Amino acid sequence: MAREPASDRTASTWTADEAVTQLFGAHYRTLVRLAVLLLRDNGAAEEITQDAFVALHGHWSRLRDPDKGLAYLRQTVVNRSRSALRHRGVVDRFLRRQAPPTTAPSAEAGALAAVAHAEVLAAVRELPARQREALVLRYYADLSEVQIAEAMGISQGAVKSHTSRAIAALRRTMEPTR
Amino acid sequence: MKPEDVLRQAFEAQAGQVEVAPDALPTIRARINARRAQRRRVFVSLASLATTAAATVAALAVGFTSCLPTNRGSQPPGGSPTPPGLTTPATPTPSGSVAPTTERAPVYFMGLSGGKPVLYWEYHQVPIGDGSVATRIRGALTLSLSGAVNDVNYGSAWSTAVTVRSVTVTSDAIVVDLSGATVGSTDPATAKIAVQQLIYTATGVATDMGTTRPGVRLLFDGAPRTTLWGSVPVAGTLSRAPQAEVLAQVWLVSPQEGNTVNPTFEVHINGSVPEANVILRVRDSGGTIVYEEPQTLSVGGPGRGDIKLPMTLAPGAYTLEAFYESPDDGSIQALDDHRITVR
Q1: Which of A21, A57, A94 sits opposite B152 (nearest CB)?
Q2: From the CA of A1, how many Å to the nearest CA of chain B?
Q3: Touching check for A146 and chain B: CB below 8 Å?
Q4: What local confidence, expressed as pLDDT, does residue B231 receive?
């Protein structure tokens, strides 16, 4: 008898290959974008996301659930982005490199909104890594506190404090200077 | 508008500009298949050898993989009976009568792994001078403390003001007299690594020259002290801290940073990792992964194991990365990477 397509069977019976294919279709692009927001490096973001799917394949026998699989992918992307940033930080420190210039919107795109976006993104880049992660997971990925805590490997209380400190810092930055 | 709303829009706008590679899924599948093939080879070899002694199984099982590695437990320089070889000759010795003025010695440096200070090491050329062990230790310590690294991921935990006044090898210790060590890290973990960087280097050079000494006595401008920088005890004879406390979990031993190697060369990884699993990854000059396979060290953590495997690459510039994946969340841990050129 021919095997049913993966999409017609319950997710708990997916093989690891099917899980990768299904979760890739549903979430790959969003996860790459999440990694870009954390890393500011499209190439590295894509590679880290691919790493996460390769790792998911190896762990699928323990997960066997699309929600758990997605949570695992998110957690891996956050962790690996953090490792990549830390590694980059070490290299930067030893080389005493200058920080990359913040991206300014082009003249054509110079609408007020774009300026505001560039400003807020520049301010986000200045935040400590954990605060930045909490903001991206909350305001880009739209995760709940429970999900953010899981993705970052910290308590819900810590998520609350990272988020509120980050927002307070952004508010200070965004206050109009007079 | 509230910061939260601007943030949402800004993230959305930035993310919206990101497009993904059209071949991402085939790339992921290819990497999964490469790992699956590797696991199958190891599994088949293990199954077929199930009755053999465990050590032999481990060695042969890895031998069945694509790379025919030789692996055995080993210790860091200064404790290893056979110091790892380099892929490029360290001192080109002319065939004429000119004697070399430097010799290769292991030199320890500080690096960060998971934000924690740990020790890495590189081979460096140190002056032979009068030929004594003390002169070589002094040369190696001067490089170590000044942070004369090849790999910019490493550095020294000592300030640039510190100098080595003298080194004396007595019957029971190596006596190192330092000057300018007044300022140092107030972080106890970094200060401890600073002292261990010195001890590992000094005892390593001595042992490699057959003059094993159990420890190091430190003097500061000729006089002993009880503590350094307010936190680390430095009185009496100091010995190497346990490896698990101070060494990086993964060392890419060779090739070293900046080496130029032949198209076929040996990769040597040493480490202390869960279940002896490390991953070796090679990137070309554009950053594309051209090789990635799990490797099995001779000994799993908390012990330290090795693997040596031959690798063949087309001429060009590459980055080799050795690391392990956290069994809990798949994150990359203890990454050590070196840039090399294949001639």
Answers
A1: A94
A2: 26
A3: no
A4: 82
Q: Which residue on chain B is closest to A168 by alpha carbon?
A: B3
Coil, helix or strand at residue B1 = coil
Split at pLDDT 50, 70, 90, the class of A106 is very low
Residues of B near A (CB-CB distance < 8 A)? 1, 3-4, 6-15, 18, 20-21, 24-25, 27-29, 31-32, 35, 111-112, 114-115, 152-155, 287, 289, 325-326, 329-333, 335
Output the six-digit token pair for B94.
């002319």
| Residue pLDDT, tens place only, A49-79 | 999 999 899 888 888 888 889 999 998 999 8
DSSP A140: I
Q: Which fold has domain A110-173?
A: Arc Repressor Mutant, subunit A (1.10.10)
> Which whole number is the average pLDDT over A129-152?
92
Domain spans in chain A, listed from the N-terminal domain onward: 11-101, 110-173
Measured distance CA(B101)–CA(B131) in Å, rounded: 9
- Give A177 to chain B, closest Cα distance, Å: 16
Q: Given this model, what pLDDT does residue B182 score?
A: 79
Fill in the amino acid letter for A91: V
- Tell me if chain B has a CB within 8 Å of the CB of A59: yes
Q: What is the pLDDT of residues B55-99, one digit of tens each?
A: 333 333 333 233 334 444 456 777 543 333 333 333 444 445 567
User: What residues are paired with B252 via a beta bridge?
Assistant: B269
Residue found by looking up tokens 């194991």 in the block: B305
In this complex, do A53 and B330 lie within 8 Å of one another by their Cβ atoms? Answer: no
Between B130 and B186, name the one with better pLDDT: B130
- Interface check for A131 against chain B (CB to CB < 8 A): the answer is no
Rounded to two decimals, what is the model's pTM? 0.56
Question: Are B247 and B272 in contact, with CB atoms under 8 Å apart?
Answer: yes
Interface probe for B, chosen from A140, A152, A171, A172 (most Cβ of B below 10 Å), is A140
**Sheet arrangement for strand B237-238:** B163-169, B174-179, B216-220, B237-238
